[in-house]
Amino acid sequence: MKEKTVYVCDICGYDNPRWFGQCPQCRNWNTAQEVRQTKRPRASTEIEGTDATFEALIKKQKEPVTRITTRFNAFNRVLGGGIVPGSVLLIGGDPGVGKSTLLTQLADQKVTVFYWSGEESTEQIMLRAQRTNDATLDRLYVYNTNRLELALEKLQKALSDSESKLPDSFQPVLVVDSIQTMKSDEVSALPGGVVQIRECTAALVAFAKARKVPVIIVAHITKYGQIAGPKLIEHLVDVVLYFDGDSDRDLRILRSIKNRFGPTNEIGVFEMGENGLKEISDPSERFYDANANDSGNAISVILEGSTPFVVEVQALAVSTHFSSPRRLSKGVDQERLNLIAAVLSKRLNLPIENHDLYLNLLGGLKCSDPGIEFPIAVAIFSSFFDKTVPPKTAFFGEVGLDGKIRGVSFSEKRITELARLGFSRIYLPKNKAHAGVFKKHPQVDFFECAYLKEALIEIFDGRS
Ligand code: TYD
Ligand code: MG
Protein backbone atom coordinates (compact mmCIF):
# COMPACT_ATOMS: atom_id res chain seq x y z
CA MET A 1 0.00 0.00 0.00
CA LYS A 2 1.56 3.26 -1.10
CA GLU A 3 1.19 6.33 1.01
CA LYS A 4 1.45 9.75 -0.53
CA THR A 5 1.71 12.99 1.35
CA VAL A 6 0.18 16.17 0.02
CA TYR A 7 -0.19 19.58 1.56
CA VAL A 8 -3.61 21.13 1.34
CA CYS A 9 -4.52 24.72 2.11
CA ASP A 10 -7.07 24.57 4.89
CA ILE A 11 -8.86 27.66 3.66
CA CYS A 12 -9.17 27.32 -0.09
CA GLY A 13 -8.30 23.67 -0.71
CA TYR A 14 -5.27 24.27 -2.93
CA ASP A 15 -3.00 21.23 -2.85
CA ASN A 16 0.64 20.66 -3.60
CA PRO A 17 3.03 17.73 -3.02
CA ARG A 18 5.45 20.18 -1.37
CA TRP A 19 4.94 22.21 1.79
CA PHE A 20 4.18 25.90 1.31
CA GLY A 21 4.30 28.77 3.80
CA GLN A 22 1.95 31.04 1.91
CA CYS A 23 -0.83 29.54 -0.17
CA PRO A 24 -0.21 30.52 -3.81
CA GLN A 25 -3.97 30.48 -4.46
CA CYS A 26 -5.59 32.38 -1.59
CA ARG A 27 -2.44 34.10 -0.25
CA ASN A 28 -3.03 33.08 3.36
CA TRP A 29 -0.08 32.13 5.53
CA ASN A 30 0.45 28.92 7.48
CA THR A 31 -2.59 27.16 6.13
CA ALA A 32 -0.82 24.10 4.70
CA GLN A 33 -2.06 20.86 6.26
CA GLU A 34 -0.26 17.63 5.76
CA VAL A 35 -2.63 15.01 4.40
CA ARG A 36 -1.55 11.42 3.95
CA GLN A 37 -3.38 9.77 1.12
CA THR A 38 -3.30 6.02 0.95
CA LYS A 39 -4.01 4.50 -2.42
CA ARG A 40 -6.34 1.99 -0.80
CA PRO A 41 -9.93 2.76 -1.78
CA ARG A 42 -12.47 3.03 0.99
CA ALA A 43 -14.28 -0.24 1.54
CA SER A 44 -17.65 1.41 1.25
CA THR A 45 -17.01 3.31 -1.97
CA GLU A 46 -18.00 0.38 -4.12
CA ILE A 47 -21.44 1.47 -5.00
CA GLU A 48 -22.82 -1.42 -6.99
CA GLY A 49 -20.87 -4.30 -5.46
CA THR A 50 -18.29 -6.33 -7.31
CA ASP A 51 -20.39 -9.34 -8.19
CA ALA A 52 -23.12 -7.44 -10.00
CA THR A 53 -23.44 -8.61 -13.59
CA PHE A 54 -24.11 -6.21 -16.40
CA GLU A 55 -27.65 -7.57 -16.79
CA ALA A 56 -28.30 -7.15 -13.11
CA LEU A 57 -27.17 -3.54 -13.29
CA ILE A 58 -29.43 -2.82 -16.26
CA LYS A 59 -32.35 -4.44 -14.49
CA LYS A 60 -31.66 -2.36 -11.43
CA GLN A 61 -31.54 0.79 -13.48
CA LYS A 62 -35.03 0.13 -14.74
CA GLU A 63 -36.52 -0.12 -11.28
CA PRO A 64 -38.41 3.02 -10.41
CA VAL A 65 -36.92 5.11 -7.62
CA THR A 66 -39.29 5.70 -4.76
CA ARG A 67 -38.56 8.94 -3.05
CA ILE A 68 -38.95 9.43 0.65
CA THR A 69 -41.68 11.93 1.24
CA THR A 70 -41.43 13.92 4.42
CA ARG A 71 -44.29 15.57 6.28
CA PHE A 72 -43.45 18.93 4.75
CA ASN A 73 -44.85 19.20 1.25
CA ALA A 74 -42.78 22.31 0.72
CA PHE A 75 -39.60 20.41 1.57
CA ASN A 76 -40.55 17.60 -0.83
CA ARG A 77 -41.39 20.05 -3.58
CA VAL A 78 -38.07 21.87 -3.27
CA LEU A 79 -36.33 18.52 -3.69
CA GLY A 80 -38.43 17.65 -6.72
CA GLY A 81 -40.82 15.23 -5.00
CA GLY A 82 -39.06 13.99 -1.88
CA ILE A 83 -35.65 12.72 -0.83
CA VAL A 84 -33.98 10.30 -3.25
CA PRO A 85 -32.65 7.26 -1.34
CA GLY A 86 -28.89 7.37 -1.08
CA SER A 87 -28.67 11.02 -1.97
CA VAL A 88 -26.59 13.53 -0.06
CA LEU A 89 -28.06 16.93 0.73
CA LEU A 90 -26.24 19.94 2.00
CA ILE A 91 -28.21 22.57 3.85
CA GLY A 92 -26.71 25.93 4.61
CA GLY A 93 -28.00 28.97 6.39
CA ASP A 94 -27.21 31.60 8.96
CA PRO A 95 -27.05 30.56 12.62
CA GLY A 96 -30.46 30.62 14.26
CA VAL A 97 -32.44 30.50 11.06
CA GLY A 98 -33.90 27.11 11.99
CA LYS A 99 -31.86 24.42 10.24
CA SER A 100 -31.72 22.16 13.29
CA THR A 101 -35.41 22.71 13.93
CA LEU A 102 -36.36 21.82 10.38
CA LEU A 103 -34.29 18.66 10.40
CA THR A 104 -35.51 17.35 13.75
CA GLN A 105 -39.04 17.97 12.57
CA LEU A 106 -38.53 15.68 9.60
CA ALA A 107 -38.92 12.75 11.98
CA ASP A 108 -42.46 11.41 11.98
CA GLN A 109 -44.40 8.22 11.28
CA LYS A 110 -42.79 7.87 7.87
CA VAL A 111 -39.25 9.07 8.43
CA THR A 112 -36.78 8.01 11.10
CA VAL A 113 -34.11 10.58 11.74
CA PHE A 114 -30.67 9.63 13.03
CA TYR A 115 -29.37 12.91 14.28
CA TRP A 116 -25.67 13.33 14.90
CA SER A 117 -24.82 16.51 16.59
CA GLY A 118 -21.40 17.88 17.25
CA GLU A 119 -22.88 21.19 18.32
CA GLU A 120 -25.59 20.61 20.86
CA SER A 121 -26.11 18.08 23.62
CA THR A 122 -28.71 15.35 23.35
CA GLU A 123 -30.82 17.16 25.95
CA GLN A 124 -30.83 20.36 23.95
CA ILE A 125 -31.95 18.55 20.83
CA MET A 126 -34.62 16.59 22.64
CA LEU A 127 -35.87 19.79 24.26
CA ARG A 128 -36.24 21.33 20.86
CA ALA A 129 -38.01 18.25 19.56
CA GLN A 130 -40.41 18.31 22.49
CA ARG A 131 -41.23 21.87 21.67
CA THR A 132 -42.05 21.09 18.07
CA ASN A 133 -44.23 18.03 18.25
CA ASP A 134 -44.71 14.79 20.06
CA ALA A 135 -44.94 12.46 17.10
CA THR A 136 -41.35 13.31 16.36
CA LEU A 137 -39.88 11.98 19.55
CA ASP A 138 -39.94 8.24 19.06
CA ARG A 139 -38.59 8.52 15.53
CA LEU A 140 -35.66 10.69 16.45
CA TYR A 141 -32.39 9.06 17.50
CA VAL A 142 -29.89 11.58 18.72
CA TYR A 143 -26.22 10.78 18.96
CA ASN A 144 -23.84 13.30 20.33
CA THR A 145 -20.59 12.89 18.47
CA ASN A 146 -17.89 14.47 16.41
CA ARG A 147 -16.04 11.26 15.58
CA LEU A 148 -17.16 10.39 12.09
CA GLU A 149 -15.84 6.83 11.69
CA LEU A 150 -17.06 5.77 15.11
CA ALA A 151 -20.51 7.16 14.46
CA LEU A 152 -20.69 5.57 11.02
CA GLU A 153 -19.69 2.22 12.45
CA LYS A 154 -22.39 2.42 15.12
CA LEU A 155 -25.01 3.43 12.62
CA GLN A 156 -24.05 0.67 10.19
CA LYS A 157 -24.36 -1.82 13.00
CA ALA A 158 -27.68 -0.47 14.21
CA LEU A 159 -29.05 -0.58 10.69
CA SER A 160 -27.87 -4.14 9.98
CA ASP A 161 -29.07 -5.40 13.36
CA SER A 162 -32.54 -4.09 12.85
CA GLU A 163 -32.83 -4.64 9.10
CA SER A 164 -35.06 -7.72 9.25
CA LYS A 165 -37.36 -6.32 11.91
CA LEU A 166 -38.02 -2.99 10.35
CA PRO A 167 -41.46 -2.04 9.11
CA ASP A 168 -41.76 -0.67 5.56
CA SER A 169 -42.52 2.77 6.85
CA PHE A 170 -39.14 2.92 8.54
CA GLN A 171 -37.21 5.29 6.33
CA PRO A 172 -33.88 6.14 7.84
CA VAL A 173 -32.41 9.56 7.18
CA LEU A 174 -29.07 10.59 8.62
CA VAL A 175 -28.63 14.19 9.69
CA VAL A 176 -25.12 15.50 10.39
CA ASP A 177 -25.18 18.78 12.31
CA SER A 178 -22.78 20.27 11.41
CA ILE A 179 -20.06 19.20 8.99
CA GLN A 180 -17.75 21.80 10.54
CA THR A 181 -17.73 19.92 13.85
CA MET A 182 -17.02 16.47 12.45
CA LYS A 183 -13.61 14.86 12.50
CA SER A 184 -12.37 11.92 10.52
CA ASP A 185 -9.52 9.81 11.87
CA GLU A 186 -8.17 9.43 8.34
CA VAL A 187 -6.66 12.88 8.33
CA SER A 188 -4.93 14.79 11.06
CA ALA A 189 -6.27 18.28 10.29
CA LEU A 190 -8.47 20.27 12.66
CA PRO A 191 -12.28 20.08 12.36
CA GLY A 192 -13.84 22.92 10.41
CA GLY A 193 -11.05 23.25 7.88
CA VAL A 194 -11.22 22.34 4.24
CA VAL A 195 -9.27 19.13 4.70
CA GLN A 196 -11.57 17.67 7.35
CA ILE A 197 -14.73 18.89 5.72
CA ARG A 198 -13.77 17.32 2.42
CA GLU A 199 -12.75 14.06 4.01
CA CYS A 200 -15.88 13.80 6.15
CA THR A 201 -18.16 14.67 3.25
CA ALA A 202 -16.52 12.08 1.06
CA ALA A 203 -17.00 9.44 3.75
CA LEU A 204 -20.66 10.39 4.17
CA VAL A 205 -21.25 10.31 0.42
CA ALA A 206 -19.71 6.83 0.28
CA PHE A 207 -21.94 5.70 3.15
CA ALA A 208 -25.09 7.15 1.58
CA LYS A 209 -24.48 5.50 -1.78
CA ALA A 210 -23.53 2.14 -0.29
CA ARG A 211 -26.42 1.91 2.20
CA LYS A 212 -29.01 3.84 0.17
CA VAL A 213 -29.59 5.98 3.23
CA PRO A 214 -29.97 9.68 2.50
CA VAL A 215 -27.66 11.97 4.40
CA ILE A 216 -28.48 15.59 5.16
CA ILE A 217 -25.40 17.63 6.02
CA VAL A 218 -25.75 20.92 7.84
CA ALA A 219 -23.13 23.47 6.89
CA HIS A 220 -22.48 26.88 8.29
CA ILE A 221 -22.10 29.73 5.96
CA THR A 222 -18.70 31.35 6.02
CA LYS A 223 -18.38 35.05 6.50
CA TYR A 224 -18.14 35.36 2.75
CA GLY A 225 -21.65 33.95 2.45
CA GLN A 226 -20.58 30.61 1.08
CA ILE A 227 -21.31 27.17 2.36
CA ALA A 228 -18.46 25.52 4.24
CA GLY A 229 -15.22 26.43 2.57
CA PRO A 230 -15.30 27.99 -0.86
CA LYS A 231 -17.85 25.75 -2.52
CA LEU A 232 -15.46 22.88 -2.01
CA ILE A 233 -18.00 20.29 -1.08
CA GLU A 234 -20.89 21.49 -3.17
CA HIS A 235 -19.76 19.33 -6.06
CA LEU A 236 -19.52 16.27 -3.84
CA VAL A 237 -23.16 16.31 -2.86
CA ASP A 238 -26.34 15.83 -4.89
CA VAL A 239 -28.44 18.66 -3.58
CA VAL A 240 -27.52 22.02 -2.09
CA LEU A 241 -30.21 23.82 -0.12
CA TYR A 242 -30.20 27.23 1.49
CA PHE A 243 -32.48 28.08 4.35
CA ASP A 244 -32.86 31.75 4.92
CA GLY A 245 -35.11 34.53 6.04
CA ASP A 246 -34.97 37.58 8.23
CA SER A 247 -34.14 36.58 11.76
CA ASP A 248 -36.50 39.25 13.08
CA ARG A 249 -39.41 37.94 11.02
CA ASP A 250 -41.00 34.51 11.19
CA LEU A 251 -40.86 33.68 7.51
CA ARG A 252 -38.23 31.21 6.37
CA ILE A 253 -37.49 30.29 2.80
CA LEU A 254 -35.95 27.05 1.66
CA ARG A 255 -34.46 27.03 -1.81
CA SER A 256 -32.36 24.64 -3.82
CA ILE A 257 -29.22 25.95 -5.47
CA LYS A 258 -28.22 22.66 -6.99
CA ASN A 259 -30.31 19.56 -7.47
CA ARG A 260 -29.26 16.48 -9.38
CA PHE A 261 -32.75 15.03 -9.13
CA GLY A 262 -35.09 17.91 -9.66
CA PRO A 263 -35.56 21.56 -10.48
CA THR A 264 -33.59 24.33 -8.85
CA ASN A 265 -35.08 27.67 -7.88
CA GLU A 266 -38.11 25.95 -6.44
CA ILE A 267 -38.81 27.44 -3.03
CA GLY A 268 -40.67 26.41 0.07
CA VAL A 269 -41.95 28.87 2.63
CA PHE A 270 -42.12 28.14 6.34
CA GLU A 271 -43.12 30.06 9.40
CA MET A 272 -41.22 29.76 12.67
CA GLY A 273 -43.58 29.76 15.62
CA GLU A 274 -43.80 28.69 19.23
CA ASN A 275 -43.97 25.05 18.17
CA GLY A 276 -41.34 24.95 15.52
CA LEU A 277 -41.71 25.36 11.80
CA LYS A 278 -44.95 25.17 9.87
CA GLU A 279 -45.13 25.23 6.13
CA ILE A 280 -47.17 27.93 4.50
CA SER A 281 -49.31 26.52 1.77
CA ASP A 282 -50.38 29.82 0.25
CA PRO A 283 -47.21 31.86 0.57
CA SER A 284 -48.20 34.53 -1.91
CA GLU A 285 -50.33 36.35 0.61
CA ARG A 286 -47.39 36.68 3.02
CA PHE A 287 -45.21 38.87 0.88
CA TYR A 288 -47.39 41.88 0.39
CA ASP A 289 -49.76 44.03 2.31
CA ALA A 290 -53.04 44.32 0.43
CA ASN A 291 -54.03 47.44 2.35
CA ALA A 292 -50.79 49.35 2.05
CA ASN A 293 -51.41 52.84 0.83
CA ASP A 294 -48.07 54.55 1.00
CA SER A 295 -45.90 56.03 -1.67
CA GLY A 296 -42.93 53.93 -2.68
CA ASN A 297 -44.75 50.61 -2.64
CA ALA A 298 -45.54 48.62 -5.76
CA ILE A 299 -46.85 45.10 -6.03
CA SER A 300 -45.50 42.56 -8.46
CA VAL A 301 -45.66 38.89 -9.24
CA ILE A 302 -42.46 36.93 -9.63
CA LEU A 303 -41.71 33.31 -10.38
CA GLU A 304 -39.63 31.17 -8.09
CA GLY A 305 -39.20 27.88 -9.88
CA SER A 306 -42.71 27.07 -10.99
CA THR A 307 -44.46 29.00 -8.22
CA PRO A 308 -45.75 32.52 -8.78
CA PHE A 309 -45.39 34.81 -5.79
CA VAL A 310 -47.01 38.15 -5.29
CA VAL A 311 -44.44 40.43 -3.69
CA GLU A 312 -44.28 43.98 -2.54
CA VAL A 313 -41.42 46.17 -3.66
CA GLN A 314 -40.63 49.07 -1.37
CA ALA A 315 -38.49 51.94 -2.51
CA LEU A 316 -37.36 55.08 -0.81
CA ALA A 317 -35.83 57.99 -2.66
CA VAL A 318 -34.40 60.73 -0.46
CA SER A 319 -32.20 63.63 -1.42
CA THR A 320 -28.65 62.74 -0.69
CA HIS A 321 -26.13 64.24 1.69
CA PHE A 322 -23.25 62.39 0.10
CA SER A 323 -21.12 63.33 -2.84
CA SER A 324 -22.10 60.08 -4.53
CA PRO A 325 -25.62 58.91 -3.71
CA ARG A 326 -26.20 55.70 -1.79
CA ARG A 327 -27.80 52.71 -3.43
CA LEU A 328 -28.94 50.06 -1.01
CA SER A 329 -30.87 47.02 -2.04
CA LYS A 330 -32.29 44.10 -0.08
CA GLY A 331 -33.65 41.10 -1.94
CA VAL A 332 -32.74 42.39 -5.38
CA ASP A 333 -29.32 42.57 -6.95
CA GLN A 334 -27.81 46.00 -6.50
CA GLU A 335 -26.74 46.07 -10.15
CA ARG A 336 -30.37 45.83 -11.11
CA LEU A 337 -31.22 48.83 -8.95
CA ASN A 338 -28.37 50.82 -10.52
CA LEU A 339 -29.56 49.91 -13.98
CA ILE A 340 -33.13 51.00 -13.34
CA ALA A 341 -31.95 54.21 -11.71
CA ALA A 342 -29.86 54.91 -14.81
CA VAL A 343 -32.84 54.31 -17.10
CA LEU A 344 -35.05 56.61 -15.00
CA SER A 345 -32.37 59.25 -15.13
CA LYS A 346 -31.72 59.06 -18.86
CA ARG A 347 -35.13 58.21 -20.31
CA LEU A 348 -37.35 60.18 -17.94
CA ASN A 349 -34.90 62.93 -16.99
CA LEU A 350 -35.52 62.18 -13.35
CA PRO A 351 -32.74 63.84 -11.28
CA ILE A 352 -32.17 60.54 -9.51
CA GLU A 353 -28.43 61.10 -9.16
CA ASN A 354 -29.14 63.60 -6.34
CA HIS A 355 -31.05 60.98 -4.42
CA ASP A 356 -30.17 58.04 -2.22
CA LEU A 357 -32.18 54.98 -3.21
CA TYR A 358 -33.20 52.21 -0.87
CA LEU A 359 -34.97 49.12 -2.08
CA ASN A 360 -36.51 46.25 -0.17
CA LEU A 361 -38.61 43.19 -0.86
CA LEU A 362 -41.12 42.49 1.86
CA GLY A 363 -40.74 39.28 3.86
CA GLY A 364 -37.04 38.74 3.28
CA LEU A 365 -37.62 37.38 -0.21
CA LYS A 366 -34.79 37.33 -2.72
CA CYS A 367 -35.59 37.71 -6.36
CA SER A 368 -33.64 37.34 -9.56
CA ASP A 369 -36.67 37.34 -11.86
CA PRO A 370 -36.34 40.16 -14.42
CA GLY A 371 -40.10 40.71 -14.15
CA ILE A 372 -39.44 42.68 -10.98
CA GLU A 373 -37.75 45.54 -12.85
CA PHE A 374 -40.86 47.40 -13.99
CA PRO A 375 -42.37 47.40 -10.46
CA ILE A 376 -39.03 48.60 -9.06
CA ALA A 377 -39.17 51.54 -11.44
CA VAL A 378 -42.77 52.21 -10.39
CA ALA A 379 -41.85 52.09 -6.69
CA ILE A 380 -38.92 54.48 -7.12
CA PHE A 381 -41.04 56.87 -9.17
CA SER A 382 -43.81 56.67 -6.57
CA SER A 383 -41.44 57.49 -3.73
CA PHE A 384 -39.70 60.22 -5.72
CA PHE A 385 -42.91 62.16 -6.33
CA ASP A 386 -44.57 60.94 -3.15
CA LYS A 387 -47.56 59.73 -5.13
CA THR A 388 -49.26 56.46 -4.25
CA VAL A 389 -49.85 53.62 -6.68
CA PRO A 390 -53.55 52.95 -7.41
CA PRO A 391 -55.10 50.27 -5.17
CA LYS A 392 -55.43 46.64 -6.28
CA THR A 393 -52.83 47.23 -8.95
CA ALA A 394 -49.85 45.06 -9.86
CA PHE A 395 -46.99 45.25 -12.35
CA PHE A 396 -44.54 42.96 -14.05
CA GLY A 397 -42.06 43.28 -16.88
CA GLU A 398 -38.41 43.76 -17.65
CA VAL A 399 -36.97 47.21 -18.28
CA GLY A 400 -34.56 47.59 -21.18
CA LEU A 401 -31.77 50.15 -21.31
CA ASP A 402 -33.75 51.85 -24.06
CA GLY A 403 -36.60 52.49 -21.62
CA LYS A 404 -38.85 49.87 -23.19
CA ILE A 405 -40.79 47.37 -21.15
CA ARG A 406 -39.98 43.86 -22.29
CA GLY A 407 -41.85 40.62 -22.04
CA VAL A 408 -41.04 38.01 -19.42
CA SER A 409 -41.78 34.31 -19.32
CA PHE A 410 -44.90 32.73 -17.84
CA SER A 411 -47.21 35.74 -18.25
CA GLU A 412 -50.27 33.57 -17.99
CA LYS A 413 -49.19 32.05 -14.67
CA ARG A 414 -48.51 35.50 -13.29
CA ILE A 415 -51.83 36.91 -14.47
CA THR A 416 -53.77 33.94 -13.11
CA GLU A 417 -52.17 34.33 -9.69
CA LEU A 418 -52.89 38.06 -9.54
CA ALA A 419 -56.49 37.53 -10.62
CA ARG A 420 -56.91 34.80 -8.01
CA LEU A 421 -55.80 37.20 -5.30
CA GLY A 422 -58.24 39.85 -6.44
CA PHE A 423 -56.05 42.36 -8.24
CA SER A 424 -58.13 44.39 -10.65
CA ARG A 425 -55.50 46.37 -12.59
CA ILE A 426 -52.44 44.78 -14.13
CA TYR A 427 -49.74 46.66 -16.00
CA LEU A 428 -47.68 44.33 -18.16
CA PRO A 429 -45.56 44.18 -21.32
CA LYS A 430 -47.21 44.18 -24.74
CA ASN A 431 -47.69 40.77 -26.28
CA LYS A 432 -50.12 39.54 -28.91
CA ALA A 433 -50.41 36.21 -27.13
CA HIS A 434 -52.02 37.89 -24.13
CA ALA A 435 -55.43 38.39 -25.80
CA GLY A 436 -56.62 34.89 -24.93
CA VAL A 437 -55.55 35.21 -21.29
CA PHE A 438 -57.26 38.60 -20.95
CA LYS A 439 -60.56 37.06 -22.01
CA LYS A 440 -60.37 34.60 -19.14
CA HIS A 441 -60.28 37.43 -16.60
CA PRO A 442 -62.98 39.91 -17.59
CA GLN A 443 -62.96 41.45 -14.09
CA VAL A 444 -59.35 42.66 -14.51
CA ASP A 445 -58.30 45.79 -16.40
CA PHE A 446 -55.13 45.12 -18.35
CA PHE A 447 -52.75 47.84 -19.47
CA GLU A 448 -50.16 46.76 -21.99
CA CYS A 449 -47.16 49.05 -21.83
CA ALA A 450 -44.46 49.56 -24.43
CA TYR A 451 -42.42 52.33 -22.81
CA LEU A 452 -41.66 52.94 -19.18
CA LYS A 453 -42.25 56.67 -19.54
CA GLU A 454 -45.76 56.29 -20.97
CA ALA A 455 -46.58 53.66 -18.39
CA LEU A 456 -45.54 55.83 -15.44
CA ILE A 457 -47.51 58.79 -16.76
CA GLU A 458 -50.56 56.60 -17.20
CA ILE A 459 -50.24 55.00 -13.75
CA PHE A 460 -49.77 58.19 -11.77
CA ASP A 461 -51.88 60.54 -13.87
CA GLY A 462 -53.97 62.66 -11.52
CA ARG A 463 -52.87 60.76 -8.38
CA SER A 464 -51.94 62.43 -5.16
P1 TYD B 1 -32.23 26.46 15.23
O1 TYD B 1 -32.96 25.36 14.55
O2 TYD B 1 -31.45 26.11 16.43
O3 TYD B 1 -31.31 27.24 14.19
P2 TYD B 1 -29.99 26.77 13.45
O4 TYD B 1 -29.84 25.31 13.63
O5 TYD B 1 -30.22 27.17 12.01
O6 TYD B 1 -28.88 27.54 14.05
O7 TYD B 1 -33.34 27.56 15.56
C1 TYD B 1 -33.07 28.51 16.46
C2 TYD B 1 -34.10 29.61 16.53
O8 TYD B 1 -35.44 29.21 16.32
C3 TYD B 1 -34.00 30.16 17.91
O9 TYD B 1 -33.84 31.55 17.80
C4 TYD B 1 -35.28 29.78 18.56
C5 TYD B 1 -36.24 29.62 17.43
N1 TYD B 1 -37.29 28.63 17.69
C6 TYD B 1 -38.60 29.05 17.77
O10 TYD B 1 -38.92 30.25 17.62
N2 TYD B 1 -39.59 28.13 17.98
C7 TYD B 1 -39.33 26.81 18.15
O11 TYD B 1 -40.25 26.01 18.34
C8 TYD B 1 -37.95 26.39 18.07
C9 TYD B 1 -37.60 24.95 18.25
C10 TYD B 1 -36.98 27.33 17.83
MG1 MG C 1 -28.26 24.30 14.63
Could you characterize the architecture of this molecule?
With 464 residues, the protein is an alpha/beta fold. It has three domains: 39 residues; 214 residues, Rossmann fold (3-Layer(aba) Sandwich), CATH 3.40.50; 176 residues, Ribosomal Protein S5, domain 2 (2-Layer Sandwich). The chain contains eleven helices and 21 strands. It has a nine-stranded mixed β-sheet. A hairpin with a 5-residue loop joins strand 1 and strand 2. The longest helix is centred in the middle third of the chain and has 18 residues. It is globular, with a radius of gyration of 26 Å. It binds thymidine-5'-diphosphate and magnesium ion. Thymidine-5'-diphosphate binds next to helix 3 and helix 4.
SSE blueprint:
Blueprint: E1 3-9, E2 15-16, E3 32-38, H1 54-62, H2 73-79, E4 88-93, H3 99-105, E5 111-117, H4 122-132, E6 140-144, H5 148-162, E7 171-177, H6 194-211, E8 215-220, E9 239-244, E10 251-259, E11 267-273, E12 276-279, E13 297-304, E14 307-319, E15 327-330, H7 334-347, E16 355-361, H8 373-385, E17 393-395, E18 398-399, E19 405-406, H9 411-420, E20 425-429, H10 434-440, E21 445-449, H11 452-460
Parallel strand pairs: 4-8, 4-9, 5-6, 5-7, 7-8, 13-17, 15-16, 17-20, 20-21
Antiparallel strand pairs: 1-2, 1-3, 9-10, 10-11, 11-12, 13-14, 14-16, 18-19
The chain binds thymidine-5'-diphosphate and magnesium ion.
